[in-house]
Model the fold of this input.
Amino acid sequence: MENKGFTLIELAVVLAIIAVLAAVLTPLVTGYLDQARIARAQADLRTIADAFKLHQRDTGRYPIYNATGYPNTVSDGTKVIFAGPGDVPTDTASWGLSTATATTTLEAWINGNFTGVSQGNAFPKAGFRGPYISNIETDPWGNQYLLNAVNLNNGNFHAFLISAGPNGAIDTAKNQAATSPLSVSSDDIVSVIQ
Done:
């Protein structure tokens, strides 16, 4: 009578081969996952930046400016950072996230008509044609996307959106002179608005 089962040695060899394959493939797969998260953050930032630019094109002002061209006051008037939903990233670059982040969300600023421009004006006249973005989510690591809003319409400094990246810490300086290229630190992911 023939035995049709596997011997213990055959099973051990098969398990060893599977273990070796898993050890080789796991770093490759996790590398692809990290690349996918970074690509998603870059795409999200470009989408949000495009929404800001569309708002500015339609109304003649960035969302944080009112009808007379001055920045809207936010809470106590000193809030200069707008954030999406999610956890607050670690602040290693002196952004002042604990005191300078506005309570109104980034999405509300993009989709709100805070500039006071008429909604009935036909193109090419200035008019609010929002909403400009459907939904802003957290970055792929669960943190907020941030905008250094005070630098919009300020020719002296770059205005940009930022994700803290995989390490969850903002390492890029908030105020960088527009006369030189933007310097991104560590693993931060950035999209320049102006």
